[in-house]
């Protein structure tokens, strides 16, 4: 069958499905499941005969939207809060997983730029971190207290200030995505370059090990959440630049709704990072090294699992349920 005829034959059906996704037409869960299976058949046909066509891309996107819609209608018996973190966010992360990859690639690139800049320009760290901070940290390193800067102020006061500051940074990374994603990349560049030069600074003064024992206690959650927030900004930007078959406004509306949910999922990790920085990081060099490592790698395992592994598990589980329901 020629692609033009295939599109003509199914165009009205696909437009009707778009209406369902946008909430303009109401369907019960059983009808939604039938639509999904019908659409999957069209997608399979398109992947077989028009693998590189825009039609295939469109059907893949449409089927994923129906897929999410089905399970939003089946959450009545489940606690809404638990459903949000256990199912809704993981499905969205899985759907937009390529943006998470893009965000990490940009993060690694920008952090490397910070390291290289600090290597080849000795004044670069002073410019990025500020001379007062650099001089104070050098004095702390000489006293064999590389994390001394984290020991000032009260624990609760520092914690609250850190949490609000980090949420503010994350909000900028996300909201700046409205400028086609360019604003998000600029904010990520700024923070990543700072991180790269910051880490090289400690390496240059022979205190990388001690600094890592302290900084990455809270840094795992803080930095990983920052990258996920950048992912959200890129999703927002892409929804404006690449509306596909939707109007630009509807594409933006859908992109904002999905990306904001993912952004909200980072807030608990950001809060945890602030608590760790305010209460634990100040004791980093007095703690047994094994405890530092447990916290650091434990944090990495939790947040890495949630955003990299768990979404695939949920997606596979949901697909299995759909197929079982159809059979």
- Helix and strand succession? HHHHHHHHHHHH
Give the tally of structural domains: 2
> Counting H and I runs of at least 4 residues, what is the number of helices?
12
The level of helicity is over 70%
Task: Break the fold down into its secondary structure elements and pairings.
Elements: H1 3-21, H2 29-49, H3 54-72, H4 80-95, H5 97-120, H6 124-129, H7 131-142, H8 155-175, H9 182-204, H10 208-241, H11 248-279, H12 289-326
Keywords: Membrane, Transmembrane, Transmembrane helix
InterPro entries: SpoIIM-like (IPR002798)
Pfam family, one: SpoIIM
Could you describe the 3D structure shown?
- The protein is mainly alpha-helical and 327 residues long.
- It folds into two domains: 3-74, no CATH class; 80-317, no CATH class.
- Helices cover 81% and strands 0% of the residues.
- It contains twelve helices and no strands.
- It has helices at residues 3-21, 29-49, 54-72, 80-95, 97-120, 124-129, 131-142, 155-175, 182-204, 208-241, 248-279, 289-326.
- Helix 4 crosses helix 11 (248-279) and helix 4 (80-95) crosses helix 12 (289-326).
- It is elongated and about 75 Å long.
